[in-house]
Design brief:
Residues 1-23 form the signal peptide. This is Guanylate cyclase domain-containing protein. Keywords: Signal. By secondary structure, the chain is α+β, with helices and mostly antiparallel strands. The chain is built from 44 helices and 47 strands. An 8-stranded mixed sheet has the order 20-21-19-26-29-31-30-32, with helices on both faces. Strands 23, 33, 34, 35, 38, 41, 42 and 43 form an 8-stranded mixed sheet that branches. The chain has a 5-stranded mixed sheet with strand order 2-1-3-17-8, sandwiched between helices. Helix 2 (28-45) runs antiparallel to helix 3 (53-69), helix 13 (347-354) packs parallel to helix 14 (365-372) and helix 26 packs across helix 27. The longest helix has 21 residues, at 1027-1047. The chain starts with a helix and ends with a strand.
């Protein structure tokens, strides 16, 4: 970290020197100020700063100049806040507050309004991707607090709430923290283990608590007692239902209860927890209701409190109450409360209760506010949440009766509900005095939830007769959701953090809290002490006194209850809620209670017992235990809850915190830190709407279609098709705003969407593919084979695995491309050049499949086949299953770049923007080439993606070059895939194109692979001589050898400057490719300047035929090549940056060393390659006139074992008695060749001009065909295989070479080496 600290220290010293030179005060105070800032900089450098190094530096220097020199900075942008869209009235209020803040502070506030149900996801998205300079503060649903803790996103507000704020140089206690109810004071903090104290991270703006609401007039009329337990709730609701009342004269019988059965309203989780709470929690909040604190740290046990009689009882009660609730909606219906946060979506049932459709229900303050506008106002009854006489013994896993010892917070009540009805003890009198004081305690509660009225002279009632039998009643009020809170981003610059604090301090002030609270339609409920005690303020706002008294009394009593149940605030809270809601959806659709319990338990087990999720499990344990105050964690702060301000009368358990595990946070920070600055508005206007993307190279069009939709539509009833499309559309539209996407058009199953950047489009596509798996599709859809759920399981190869040491040369020197770090690369078809060093930077840069390591040594597969071997289909009961398909399969195509204004149309009638033109045509063609469940990218899209920031979550695979339509140019296509859905690779079909021009990664060989390294001889020399000419020549080289590679079905691994690295399934193809590339070099139209260079000049051999004619044969012309080939097992990986296959293994090192040893024009291969080629493809090799001469066994640099090397060349069909092609000679000594020719009959000519023969006979035309390869082979031999001053050839390797000829030519015949 020292290098990071150097710059700020230098700047600080410069600032100090400047101030002294300018004659500024250098008093002790100034020096102390400077010393403090030096310490702050040192501390900032000692730990990673998630907000980015330069953001931190800017913040420190601003603080330094402000504190030490009283220099203020003028903000040059608006304060950006992210706020939930909670309806017209609340949105208008928040906009008005933003405007007034500008008048107060002189800075504009730019609020972005997000649908309430999505705001947490938006915040987490910003923090996960480290999108700095985005929003300076947020209002959020507390269920996301745990996840935001993980990202270290919260600014510490402890000093803010304790010390008065300074606004316009005036000190004022804006927040008035002491006036916040102690419950909310303590649920706004978490324990900082590094500082060993609690820190405040959010400002409460709302207070949620579940209460039982009932019609007091109906209970009076029919002499019904207020239910104390959930079993009594069912009995009373059944009684009300049986009366078949129609008190609201709507022609329909009034329902006995109000439960919302629609999954889309997300009330199931809250309702189930309300019922379950008193059975599971009876020993205080630290006992918890979701996970067992005693087992949550045991990674081999499922800590979810699901598989027990308490859950069974709760599900039975829930099912009974659903049957007594409004039945005019279905489980799958869409909620009519659009965009609300889950906890606030209960307003639908609140409206039903207010209009008399149902006569009893549980809910938040929305029931009270809705009833205030009801025709029945004044008849509201409110009680604590029902309790239970039985609780779960977690040791025996059985329900047992409550006792004073077992249930310390229970109340002693008659065993049966006494004949005390609301006519004898009504809530109108009983609740009158409930809110008279802020510290109403549970000791004032009667058994039925009523509170005795206070009066100057309370009447003396005779004591009731002793009950026949009594029982202990356990209550556990449920703080569902917790209520909206405000938070300041820790990642924004310090001046904007301070402004954000000022803004939210104003919002949380007492007066502003009243403004929100008293709005009839707002979701904000009481959370300040004065909200519960100042009854007159409510009455002045139009609320009826009796109803308000009942509501405030029960709410305050609940918040003070020592057994209150806190809602989840851990990471993955939404996932856990979804498990419960999925189970309830099955329950209300007809599944049995036992099957639902099993389903939920299995879902938790799969998530929490996964060995790969140990980090999540540890983090979950830490945060969950802290939120329920397990093991009295508040005393780590050194004070008890009674020491806090405003905490008089609050129970000792109240300090509740969320511990941010230091190690886990640092790991997440290290993985998440990237350099990225997002558009400050995220391309949204002041109303949170996405601005349509305009003309520009980054504008990306995404076209999506359901595969085989026409056939699906024919196979399904019309109403099912409509439902399918609705669910499909809803899913995509919910995700669109998060990624700043704009809906250009939608026709049936097809969307045309526009995004401001390729990254936004890709992230949307990835999330959509995963989200579609979770949609509750109609059963008829899932019954179709094309839409049925498909589970897979990763498997290992059945072949005996090879040790990695057998595949990789761990100690060998790495092979790097020749001059890769110095030379600009050329790649065919626009392929990005890359080098091995980038792959090393990312480590395992792709999806390394088990089968790629364990392929038998002699077997070769394509990557596609290896994927099919790596996964097998699994049943839904398999604990290791992975769901990869479920429901209709969506294919998507992306293309970036809108270049004409004519391609964008704006409609004045509806304000919509639509897209057309070449970009849409291209995106649609790409989409139609994809298979279902596939996201295809054009090369223009791929080039603009910041893959270095996405590789850990997403795979991008090169799918080859394709011709999609006759009217479109050839395209390189890329397949983007979420790493959690890698199993889809086993089921991805081929690209639907007219022609595949170039193979993709799925065609790459894996297992036993033949590798060929081809080098341009003297490439660096040529580039130094004339870079422009050399680059032009190398470009021709890449084009030619690339075309030959396609013809031989090889796979391009790397192409950079003078290197071409290719892989083949068959060694015969590799050898023929190298030989044919040598031939092709001679035929190219090289620049004249290149041919004038000695490394590239034309070399011609003249030789007579048997008929006496002289034939001139071109041996070299243009770039010279040399190639090394080897075969062996490799470890294949998909490179994160290029999407292409990369290889590691001994074979790579051996092939590279063989190539570097070869002389100009030579194709050398290992004996493994040669023997396999002659065994598997002997006919192919013979028909192409390929021969190989063994040069012996040699020890190459970096290769441990000796390698036998063969020299491959093309020869004639007819061999003369003595052939020049049989000689293996030194490359440099052409004079030896000249002497050889002139010393025999017919000789006398020289190289390039004379005539020559071999051994007394003329050279036949068959000896100088094929580009002079026979003659080239005679002239060139690997110099590194010889000793200085001599030339060696294996004895008996050429039957035409006798001792006399060898001596004449200066060749030493060496014995065969073993």
């Amino acid at each position: 970290m020292a290098h990071r600290c150097f710059l700020p220290f230098v700047l600080l010293l410069v600032a100090c020197s400047f101030s002294m030179a300018a004659g500024q005060d250098t008093s002790d105070n100034k020096l102390l100020c400077m010393a403090e800032m030096v310490s702050n900089i040192e501390n900032s450098c000692s730990r990673p700063d998630i907000s980015g190094y330069y953001v931190a530096l800017e913040s420190l220097l601003k603080d330094y100049l402000k504190k030490c020199f009283h220099t203020n900075f003028t903000s040059n942008r608006a304060l950006h806040t992210m706020l939930p869209d909670l309806g017209t009235d609340v949105t208008s209020y928040l906009k008005s507050l933003s405007d007034s803040f500008k008048d107060l502070e002189g800075i504009e506030v730019g609020p972005t309004f997000i649908p309430a149900a999505q705001i947490n996801s938006e915040i987490e998205f910003e923090l996960e991707h480290n999108l700095t300079n985005s929003h300076d503060g947020w209002i959020l649903d507390p269920m996301g607090i745990g996840s935001i803790f993980n990202y270290d996103g919260f600014q510490d507000l402890t000093e803010v709430v304790r010390d008065p704020l300074v606004v316009n140089n005036v000190s004022t206690d804006v927040i008035h923290w002491a006036g916040v109810h102690p419950y909310f004071q303590n649920t706004s903090v978490y324990y900082d283990s590094t500082q060993r104290k609690f820190v405040v991270v959010v400002l409460p703006l709302d207070g949620n608590i579940k209460l039982l609401y009932y019609r007091r007039d109906v209970f009076d009329s029919y002499k019904l007692s207020v239910p104390r337990t959930w079993e009594e709730v069912v009995d009373v609701a059944t009684k009300l239902q049986s009366l078949k009342l129609d008190l609201n004269d709507d022609g329909l019988a009034d329902y006995g209860f109000c439960f919302d059965r629609r999954t889309d309203c997300h009330q199931g989780y809250f309702d189930l927890m309300s019922i379950l709470a008193p059975y599971l929690q009876y020993n205080g909040s630290s006992q918890g209701v979701v996970f067992d604190p005693n087992t949550i740290r045991l990674t081999d046990k499922n800590p979810a409190l699901v598989d027990n009689p308490a859950m069974t009882r709760a599900l039975q009660l829930y099912s009974q109450l659903i049957a007594l609730s409004p039945a005019d909606t279905n489980v799958t219906d869409t909620c009519d409360v659009s965009g609300a946060a889950p906890a606030d979506a209960g307003v639908s049932m609140a409206a039903r209760f207010a209009n008399g459709s149902c006569l009893m229900g549980v809910g938040l303050g929305s029931f009270f506010k809705a009833f205030n506008a009801s025709a029945y106002r004044g008849q509201l009854g409110v009680a604590l949440m029902p309790g239970s006489f039985e609780v779960l013994n977690r040791t025996s896993n059985q329900l047992v009766n409550c006792t004073a010892e077992l249930c310390p917070f229970a109340t002693h009540v008659p065993a049966t509900n006494p004949a005390v009805t609301t006519s004898t003890l009504t809530d109108s009198t009983a609740d009158a005095a409930a809110p008279a004081a802020a510290n109403v305690s549970s000791s004032s509660a009667s058994g039925n939830g009523s509170v005795l009225a206070a009066s100057p002279s309370p009447p003396q009632l005779p004591p009731p007769p002793p009950p026949v039998a009594t029982r202990w009643l356990n209550r556990a009020p449920f703080a569902a959701g917790g209520g909206w809170v405000a938070a300041v981003s820790a990642r924004t610059p310090s001046d904007y953090r301070n402004l954000s604090i000022d803004f939210f301090a104003q919002l949380s002030s007492p007066e502003e809290s009243w403004s929100r609270m008293l709005m009839a339609g707002s979701p904000f409920d009481p959370y300040r002490l004065e909200h519960f005690s100042n009854l007159s303020r409510w009455v002045e706002a139009g609320y009826l006194e009796n109803d308000t008294t009942a509501y405030l009394g029960r709410a305050n009593e609940s918040f003070n209850h020592p057994n209150i149940v806190l809602d989840l605030r851990t990471p993955s809270t939404k996932t856990f809620r979804d498990i419960y809601e999925s189970g309830l959806a099955n329950l209300t659709s007809g599944s049995s209670v036992d099957s639902v319990v099993a389903l939920m338990n299995a879902s938790f087990a799969k998530l929490l017992l996964d060995p790969q999720q140990k980090a999540l499990r540890t983090l979950l344990a830490d945060t969950y235990l802290a939120t329920i105050n397990y093991n009295n964690i508040q005393f780590l702060n050194g004070t008890s809850s009674t020491d806090s301000k405003g905490g008089e009368g609050s129970p000792s358990w109240l300090p509740i915190a969320i511990v941010l595990p230091t190690v886990g946070a640092l790991l997440l920070i290290a993985a998440g830190v990237v350099y990225e600055v997002r558009n400050t508005r995220k391309h949204k206007n002041l109303f949170g709407k996405v601005v349509p993307p305009g003309v520009g190279p980054d504008t990306t069009i995404l076209v999506s279609e359901i595969q085989d939709f026409a056939q699906l539509a024919k196979s399904l009833p019309a109403e099912v098709v409509d439902r399918l499309l609705k669910d499909h559309h809803d899913c995509l539209r919910r995700l669109l705003l998060r990624h700043s996407g704009y809906e250009g058009s939608c026709e049936a199953d097809s969307f045309v969407l526009a995004f401001h950047s390729p990254k936004d489009a890709l992230l949307f596509a990835m999330e959509a593919q995963a989200a579609l798996l979770q949609v509750v599709w109609p059963a008829d859809v899932l019954a179709l084979p094309a839409c049925a759920p498909l589970y897979v399981q990763g498997i290992m190869s059945t072949a005996k695995p090879k040790a990695l040491d057998d595949i990789l040369d761990v100690g060998d020197e790495p092979i790097a491309p020749a001059s890769a770090s110095k030379m600009k690369g050329f790649s065919p078809a626009g392929l990005r050049s890359h080098d091995h060093s980038r792959a090393n930077h990312f480590g395992s840069s792709g999806a390394t499949l088990p089968s790629l390591v364990n392929v038998p040594a002699t077997e070769t597969y394509t990557f596609s086949n290896a994927c099919r071997r790596a996964w097998k289909e699994a049943s839904k009961d398999d604990p290791n299953k992975v769901l990869i398909f479920r429901g209709p399969r969506l294919r998507m195509g992306l293309h970036a770049g809108v270049h004409s204004e004519h391609d964008i149309s704006h409609s004045k009638a509806d304000g919509r923007t639509t897209y057309s033109g070449d970009t849409v045509v291209m995106a649609r063609a790409v989409a139609q080439a994809a298979q279902g469940g596939t996201v295809l990218l054009s090369e223009e899209t791929y080039k603009k993606l910041p893959l270095e920031r996405l590789w850990d979550k997403y795979l991008v695979l090169h799918m080859g070059e394709h011709r999609l339509r006759d009217t479109l140019p050839n395209l390189n296509l890329y397949h983007a895939l979420n790493r959690t859905l890698e199993g889809r690779l086993a089921y991805v079909g081929p690209i639907s194109s007219l022609l595949q021009v170039d193979p993709g990664v799925l065609d790459a060989p894996v297992g036993c692979v033949t590798v060929a390294f081809m080098y341009v001889v003297g490439a660096q020399t040529l580039l130094s001589w004339n870079a422009d000419v050399a680059q032009q020549a190398i470009k021709i080289f890449h084009t030619v050898v690339g075309d030959e590679l396609k013809r031989r079905k090889g796979y391009l691994v790397e192409a950079v400057d003078g290197l071409f690295l290719a892989a083949f399934q068959r060694p015969s193809d590799a050898i023929l490719w190298a030989l044919e590339c040598n031939e092709a070099m001679i035929k190219q139209d090289w620049p004249e300047d290149l041919l004038a260079h000695e490394l590239c000049e034309e070399l011609v051999i003249s030789a007579p035929t048997k008929e006496g004619e002289v034939i001139n044969t071109v041996v070299f012309r243009g770039l010279r090549l040399k190639t090394g080939v080897d075969t062996g097992q490799v470890l294949g990986e998909v490179h994160a940056m290029t999407g292409r296959m990369t290889y590691r293994g001994k074979v790579m090192n051996r092939a590279a060393r063989i190539a570097s040893t070869a002389s100009t024009g030579q194709v050398l291969c290992s004996s493994d390659s040669w023997q396999l080629a002659m065994t598997a493809d002997a006919q192919v090799m013979l028909s192409n006139k390929v021969s190989g001469t063994s040069l012996g066994q040699f020890r190459l640099k970096g290769v441990a074992e000796k390698i036998e090397i063969h020299h491959c060349r093309k020869v004639s069909n007819v061999a003369p008695a003595r052939r020049a092609s049989s000689l293996v000679m030194s490359m440099a000594d052409h004079w030896k060749w000249e002497q050889h020719l002139s010393a025999h009959a017919g000789g006398g000519g020289g190289v390039g001009g004379g005539v020559g023969g071999v051994g007394g006979g003329a050279v036949g035309p068959e000896d100088i065909l094929l580009g002079g390869d026979s003659l080239r082979g005679a002239m060139l031999s690997p110099r590194s295989f010889t000793r200085p001053g001599s030339f060696r050839q294996r004895k008996n390797s050429d039957t035409q070479l006798d001792a006399a000829n060898a001596a004449h030519l200066g060749i030493e015949l060496a014995p065969d080496e073993v």
